[in-house]
Design a protein that fits this description.
By secondary structure, this protein is an alpha/beta fold. The protein contains 11 helices and 11 strands. Strands 7-6-5-8-9-11-10 form a 7-stranded mixed beta sheet, with helices on both faces. Strands 1-2 form a two-stranded antiparallel sheet. The chain starts with a strand and ends with a strand. 41% of the residues are buried.
């Protein structure tokens, strides 16, 4: 049997052929997952059973070929919670925590303790779950169309103990918007990649569902359609909050203002990129 140290080095070298910068991290994550230990290299001389070593090597090989680490592990952390994921559902990313933070700041500022919130294009449910965790008295709805994503969404609500209402529906259809009215907050991380972006995707991202990535020729199709369609579902004085891609902030702001939303607040993510926008539904005159 091979020792943990020997196996770790073999896996790290394999993954490093593709990405030297993440090789240590990726290998450690694989070891943690398959050995079931938080610090598997505290005992580097321990032998690894042959069947387990082969399983670990197999994952390292797939990672070296560009398969997403998150899908290999079958779960990923977001907002301090674990979310089950796999092909067919978008991988939760740290940038999206900026959107959660912005919505929570709105709730604190407006003293909302029991807001009615709808998370459109919910996917894994990471946004809905994070908001429900932080606002336990909130009435949270997660709207998702994909038959592949819905099982993950349901599993993650149960896994994280979140009483979130799940609605299967197309966010671009009136019949879906009609199911939710008098919303205090509408939040969404919709598809926003452009046609050009889709031709330049990293190998890892190509494994994620196109339906959760492609936002039309200029990446703004969902923002135009959802803002127009769902504004009547939001209370006067209620809020809408979006995540978007780098450089799309001016266009998203314009879309919001054209639909009667005011006081648009843009926010930067941890990397300094303007990543989210929140706006108020103007008081009717």
């Amino acid at each position: 049997m091979v020792s943990r140290r020997e196996l770790f080095e073999k896996c790290r070298e394999l993954i490093a052929q593709r990405d030297a910068e993440t090789a240590d991290f990726d290998t450690n994550c694989i070891f943690q997952d398959l050995l079931g230990e938080k610090n598997p290299m505290f005992a580097p001389k321990l032998p690894v059973p042959d069947d387990k070593a082969q399983e670990i090597l197999s994952l390292a090989q797939r990672r070296s070929e560009g398969y997403p680490l998150q899908y290999l592990l079958g779960q990923w952390e977001f907002w301090g919670c674990n979310f089950k994921i796999g092909e067919g559902v978008l991988i939760p990313r740290p940038d999206t925590e900026t959107l959660v933070e912005q919505v929570l700041d709105i709730c604190r500022r407006e003293k909302m303790t029991t807001p009615k919130i709808a998370d459109l294009c919910s996917g894994s449910g990471c946004i809905a779950a994070a908001l429900k965790k932080e606002l336990p008295r909130a009435d949270v709805y997660a709207v998702e169309l994909s038959d592949k994503a819905l099982p993950y969404l349901r599993q993650n609500m149960e896994l994280n103990g979140c009483d979130v209402h799940i609605i299967k529906g197309d966010v671009l259809e009136c019949s879906t918007a009609d199911k939710l009215t008098e919303l205090d907050i509408l939040v969404s991380n919709p598809p926003y990649l452009t046609a050009r972006d889709m031709t330049e995707l990293q190998t890892e991202v190509r494994h994620e569902p196109e339906s959760a990535l492609f936002g039309g020729e200029d990446g703004l199709d969902f923002y135009r359609a959802m803002t127009s369609l769902w504004k009547s579902s939001i209370k006067t004085g209620g809020f809408i909050a979006y995540e978007f891609g780098m450089g799309q902030h001016d266009d998203v702001k314009a879309i919001l203002e054209e639909n009667g939303f005011t006081d648009v607040e843009l926010r930067r993510d941890g990397g300094g990129i303007i990543r989210t926008a929140a706006a108020v539904k103007a008081v009717s005159r």
